[in-house]
Amino acid sequence: MSKNDILLDENAACKVLGGDEKPLSPKTLQSWRFRGYGPPWIAVGRLCRYRLSDLEAFLNGQIRHSTSDRGHTCR
Length: 75
Fold this sequence. Notes:
By secondary structure, the chain is an alpha+beta fold. The protein is 37% helix and 13% strand.
């Protein structure tokens, strides 16, 4: 497993996605999982884990070049 493939819990994933000062809410990640949106996640028994590389790829996919740039549509 490479350095970017470490598994993060939900709270750590929220910090990666939103930053240390204003992390994303865990409720947002839970909602995204339920709707089939957001970064890929891994079920480890009853636990939910995120690979750092998947979080980085998700963030890179959110890049916009203007306010009219819709980017990828949600599933």
